Predict the 3D structure of the following.
Amino acid sequence: MAVHSPAPPAAPPVDRPPRRLLPALDHPADALRNLGPNWFAAVMGTGIVGNAAITLPVGGQALRPAATAVWALATLLLLALLGAWTAHAVRHPDRARALAGHPVMGHFWGAPAMALLTVGAGTVALGADLLGTHLAVRAGAVLWAAGTALGLLTCVAVPYRTMTGEPAPADAAFGGWLMPVVPPMVSAATGAALVPHLPAGQARLTLLLVCAALFGISLGCSLILLPQLWSRLVHHGPGPAALVPTLWMVLGPLGQSVTAVHLLADAAPGVLPAPYAAAVRAAVPLYGVPVWGFALMWLALAAALTVRQARRGLPFSLAWWGFTFPVGTCVTASAGLADRLGAHLFTATALALYAFLVLAWLTVGTRTLRGALRGTLFLPPPAPPDRLGEGALARSDRS
């Protein structure tokens, strides 16, 4: 009879030290799997810090070196995200299509367009210090054209998909519905800065009229969507915690529209025939001051609802970037009105809002960097609940 020698004991498992980078993910490559368009809000929020600084009626030029550094950071973020986003679409096409068609995340496809436009505006206003005026204007024009084309696409495609898909529930409206329709307003404001760099005559007139038409597109869509959001808040409340920061996005079309009117008025003389150039300049206070007042009212309302939710628990997510770019548009709006009217009221408001913007940017940027390094912001979203699919709104930092 054969004698079997006892099997050697199994080797004890090797305890591998946890990764210091992306420890929340099974594999570092998984960071690309769930890369949604909402990541581009970080570019928007960073870029507006630099762009708004040089518009301040007091101390703006003193901040120019720091603003240029922030613009450079936003440019690097944009390039990195464009590369990562391309890899995401190539390696995970099914996941990319799923995010594009999601009833909540799909609205954030307006963010890439506004990221391009924000960096483009900074390139024209700040990039000349590093690139020279000629190259900076050309690069800014390319970014403006790309952002405008993408913004017009999202402005039509996202609402079309919403209208032809599953009927939205009565409580579906949230601040993110504005994301795909705001890019044309950003194009209107940033395009006005390119008008003086074109040859006099039809080229300048055409761009100015295009910017005015883009202003109308976004304003009309915003006027349709804002009553729906107000109705949802009144009848169904602010909703899940993840949705509360999106209320700040209402400030985007409000502040940016005032900024756009101011910049278009600056570009109109010598381009529009009389008396229309003077009429545009007169429209700045007639339109800008009332809308500015409504923007501050909404700012107070959004802040109160955010504080209320923070007392109950407000988990960090990429939606927190809503505390930055929309506020930045109110800074540029206030600065524009201060420049136009010389009122200390607008000067003080611009400075106060800019201080809040910088504080919000530092806070949200730090939390985003920490969540990205840990990998928690790259985790797949939880299964969406029955209402609104708020789980896919943004990646929560679950650390």
About this structure: The first helix runs from residue 41 to 53. The chain has a mean pLDDT of 90. DSSP finds twelve helices and no strands in the chain. The radius of gyration is 23 Å.
